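Hi R.,

As promised, here are both runs. First protein below:
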Amino acid sequence: MNKVFGMLGLAKRAGKVSTGAFVCGNMIKSRKAKLVLLAGDAAPNTKKAIRNSCKYYNVKLIEISDMESLGHATGGGERAVVSVNDENFAKAISDKYILCETEKG
């Protein structure tokens, strides 16, 4: 999972990441979000709203880790939702996530 968070940190430094449920929701609705990362321990209402938005607007969603790890990767406090707003970073993060998952099990 460290590779995923490392790539997420690069995307953040490049200015291609938005954090927070409200901002990410707007990025999804404006079709700027290419990938959304949702913390596994986010509030149930937040999870439902983000899942529904991603499904409706056809944005790839990955449920990952916890709010503390997601926040640490983006250089801040706890974050429930992070959107990656660049196609190349989104693909790289998604590929690294898939690789991590296949190595686990």
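And here is the second one, sequence first, then its structure tokens:
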Amino acid sequence: MRPISRRAAISLLAAMGASPTAIAQQAGRRRLVGALFSLAADDPEGQARLGAFRDGLRALGWVEGVNLELAVRWSAGDAGQLWRSARELTGLSPAAILAGATTELVALKEATSTVPIVFAQVTDPVGLGVVASLARPGGNITGVTQHGFSLGAKWVELMRLLSPEIERIGIFFDPSNPANEGYVHAAELVATRFAVRIEPLGVRTPDALRQQTRHFGTSPRGGVILLPGPLGAANRDVFIGEANAARMPSVFAFRYHVISGGLASYGVDNIALYRQAARLTDRVLRGEQPAVLPVENGDAFQMVLNLRTARIIGLDLPPSVVARADEVIE
């Protein structure tokens, strides 16, 4: 999205009810805000996240080209590029930086202890050691949590509801992502209850993701779960293609995986988290300190099913499960 013209932006501020004095003040000073994403710049999901953040800021009076400048960096799942971009953004001394998710936040935290950071989708910021508490973060970081590790158990339950014949569940994750251990542990705790065997499968490269998924699919009665993280997000088409080719049910955390051809997802509406992050960023830009801005929770959960994928893999989804879905892709 291109910044709108200065004249149009000032008209927008006036339409939003800003006083002539406030318009003059905001138009005369641009605040620099950084944004770091682990996806590629041309990834529709990445653009949706950035768009929600931009829209959230604009609704609060921050208009690019008038009183706001955005410096956006993309790493396309490349860990080295992610850390380089984190150092580059902090070196610009912005008024605040948006950290897309856990890996982005870890890289930015390493790069600065002074520039305000607002994260959008991090599972356990206290356990990760980036904030002292949710109520009082205590440093230069605050943001929005996406869900708890207990969702790992929910994904196992959903898999069994979708395909009661499943006996093996492969959980694919990047070992370098510190959030994944909690999800795997939660899934393992309920394995006996749901009569399945959990097989944690750590992968660090796109080739390893492809090969491990293909290998797992050579044995019968298997289903796969892809944990959140930049490697899986950037290479979701690879994972989904292999899973569907092997006729395996697949479960994910987010809707965009199902839009890309996965079978099912259950989790928070992560795009909404970026609008929440925009509201926290607005408060930072207006002078509040992240140390005393409470971390917010995402609370808009959704289950999405792809009936087209179900037909591709030869799975008849139980009508009771379909009826519970918030969105069904035909």
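A quick note on the second one: Residues 44-59 form the longest helix (16 residues). Let me know what you think.

Best,
J.
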